[in-house]
Design goal:
It contains 9 helices and no strands. With about 200 residues, the chain is an all-alpha fold.
Length: about 200
């Protein structure tokens, strides 16, 4: 029973996950530094307000659990390393919590949305070295976001799975799945706005 929620999330978001992965195409062999910087700025513009939205509704008992999983600061440090300057994060366009982010109205939705962000650390293990090779980056200088938890990725993911299973009642599984799908969809709309009116977006 403890993995029913995670199994549903994995299977019912698979198509959304694949669409976003294909749209970003981070593993391509012609990745350019300027487009990578622009993409990190878009990531920051989504992740930072998403973290604020999650923090505002996360139960106090899980605050430490969530704070250990914040990632916007990694994006900020990557942008600093890549541009050679400390950019004011306020100058980066930010997603609007009401219009551009998923609705997080209960613990099921919170963990459904977190599933997307935490799951991205698994794929990041492959993206980080690829980006470093393509752009000749020094270790941890420009790909910290995709490096994520590094050697702790597996243990952090297992801890997330266990906490999600213990925190979300079965009555809220549907809400968790809806929020996860909405997170994938709003993230793709924010990161890849040029695709929203294309045939691929409605495929």
């Amino acid at each position: 029973m403890s993995h029913d929620l995670l199994s549903r999330l994995k299977h019912e978001t698979a198509a959304c996950h694949t669409r976003l992965e294909n749209a970003l195409d981070m593993m391509r062999g012609d990745l350019q530094r300027d487009e990578y910087i622009a993409l990190l700025e878009r990531f920051y513009g989504y992740v930072a307000p998403w973290e604020n939205a999650i923090s505002a509704v996360m139960p106090a008992s899980l605050k430490t659990f969530f704070d250990a999983r914040r990632k916007a600061h990694w994006l900020a440090s990557d942008l600093d390393a890549l541009t050679g300057e400390r950019r004011p994060t306020g100058s980066v366009p930010h997603a609007d919590a009401l219009y551009d982010l998923p609705q997080l109205n209960n613990i099921g939705a919170i963990f459904g949305s977190m599933y997307v962000m935490e799951g991205s650390t698994l794929g990041g293990r492959f993206i980080a070295p690829h980006v470093a090779q393509m752009l000749s980056l020094e270790p941890g200088q420009g790909n910290a976001y995709f490096e994520g938890y590094g050697a702790r990725t597996g243990s952090m993911w297992n801890a997330f799975r266990e906490t999600a299973a213990a925190s979300v009642p079965e009555s809220l599984y549907d809400d968790a799945v809806r929020a996860a799908i909405a997170t994938f969809e709003t993230m793709q709309a924010w990161l890849c706005p040029e695709l929203q009116d294309s045939p691929e977006a409605s495929a």
